[in-house]
Design a protein that fits this description.
Alpha-Beta Plaits, 2 domains, 9 helices
Length: 272
């Protein structure tokens, strides 16, 4: 079988994959699949190269992700990225419409002088990956995120907002101690409150136990209108007794341009 025939077969196979795939020979791209071409709105690898340059030139130079500036001068980026831990093999690439997407990268070098790079779209799962939930990250009494854990990761949450071109909303839920005098001794009521609250927010939103009777909901939205919809939904649930077991009041703020989460939290506490 000739190399030309072999590459034609490889082209057929990779075109059936939903991941973006590029085949390299000696570090130079020789094939790209249909998904890769569609992402960049080109008809072929040749057109992509003419319009975008080297593959690594398409990696956005974001500090949280792999890009050209993280590769040594005499090193191939395919080798450089595989030296990283799997969780760090993430690149950001823009569509022609300037929509940012995140991809995890796998490189197969099992055939001598050839490499196959596969890019798996993880844009929707990015925050979920960053905020991987496990029991050590939770406040054991309530089931919400632990404050210390949140303080360790919130800078990454800010990065995720910038990367996904979102804004951050913060809602402070304060349990009324006058109406619920025994709440601190009623672990079941507290867990029920948190569980029902979490059932009415998205998996990627962070509900943090901030103080004994206060919880912070930190979430990402497209704009202030969407943030208002989140607040109104929760206000409706509280008003109609659908946030079970414990009565609470809600205060809300939305991120201003380049505002930090620290500032957001200070503002929402003043809104009480």
């Amino acid at each position: 079988m000739t190399e030309e025939t072999s590459l034609a077969l490889v082209q057929t196979i990779i075109n059936s994959e939903k991941d973006l795939i590029v085949v390299f020979k000696g570090g130079q791209p020789i094939l790209s699949n249909s998904a890769f071409n569609a992402f960049f709105s080109v008809s072929s690898l040749k057109e992509y190269t003419r319009g975008f340059g080297e593959v690594i030139d398409s990696f956005v130079p974001h500090p949280s992700y792999f890009h050209k500036e993280k590769v040594a001068e005499d090193e191939n980026w395919l080798d450089a990225i595989m030296k990283l831990e799997e969780i760090d093999r993430i690149v950001s690439m823009m569509t022609p419409n300037f929509e940012p997407c995140a991809f995890s990268v796998r490189v197969d070098s099992s055939v001598e002088d050839y490499q196959i790079a596969a890019f798996t779209d993880i844009t929707r799962d990015l925050i979920k990956r960053i905020m991987t939930e496990n029991n050590t990250d939770l406040d054991q009494e309530s089931g919400a995120y632990d404050k210390k854990y949140f303080m360790q990761v919130y800078k990454t949450y800010e990065d995720a907002a910038v990367f996904n071109e979102k804004i951050i909303g913060v809602i402070l839920a304060t349990i009324n101690e006058d109406d619920n005098p025994d709440f601190s001794h009623d672990e079941k009521a507290l867990k029920d409150f948190v569980e029902h609250f979490k059932n009415n927010i998205r998996h990627d939103d962070m509900l943090v136990r901030w103080e004994e009777n206060k919880f912070l909901l930190v979430y990402l939205v497209d704009n202030e209108k969407s943030a208002k919809q989140v607040l109104n939904k929760l206000l409706h649930l509280v008003k109609n007794g659908m946030i079970k077991s414990l009565e609470c009041k809600l205060s809300s703020v939305v991120q201003k341009e380049k505002e930090s989460i620290d500032s957001l939290i200070r503002r929402v506490q003043l809104e009480e």
